[in-house]
Write the structure tokens for this entry.
Amino acid sequence: MKDVITSSSLAFFIALSTLTSCQQEKEKTSEQIASPTKPKATEDSLMEGDILFQISTSGQGKAIQLATKSPYSHCGILFKENKDWMVFEGVQPVKKTLLSEWINRGDGHHFVSKRHKHAASLLTSNVKEKMKEEANKLMGKNYDLTFEWNDDRIYCSELVYKIYQRGAGVSVGTLQKLQDFNLNSPVVRAKLKERYGRNIPLNETVISPGSIFADSNLVEILNK
């Protein structure tokens, strides 16, 4: 009888230990899942120079999606300052935004992170410092509502493109002309009229978030 009780107690102890272990593992896994306000797992996957894409909730977001045939209408580039991940982005004005704040601002808190496939060899410490220098030169500039290819004002994908081109010596995405986009949608045409009136600069050089997103040299790191 004593042996039966001992065996039963042992079995109960093993079952309890297994249940406790499973519960702890479940809690641990839950803690590792990134959220917009506590993106711990997200941060552990990121590197300086990563390009982040999201669906903008701004008034022009839909027009950009339709014109470029891409779901992503906003992008930024990631660097670390002290212990904080910051997204350098072309908004009004061009600025650095905490990663958690940037994620929260996007539609549904959804974002995609992409990285150059040669980042390990391309983005050396010196190159990243040069990229940061180029980025800081453009901080504080006004947002470019008319998407002109100069540094007087800057829009989001233009900022990312120029930081990579000037800081790392590589291009991300393909430069296009405004006339290359889908300008037939009523939403797009209304936005063009609002910005340009009758004088639409169809030959203006433009880089879009969608073009950078589609670059075959970029690999997806996160899709949250």
Q: What stands out?
A: The chain has nine helices and eight strands. Residues 1-32 form one domain. Confidence is low (pLDDT under 50) at residues 4-39. Residues 68 and 181 are 6 Å apart (CA to CA).
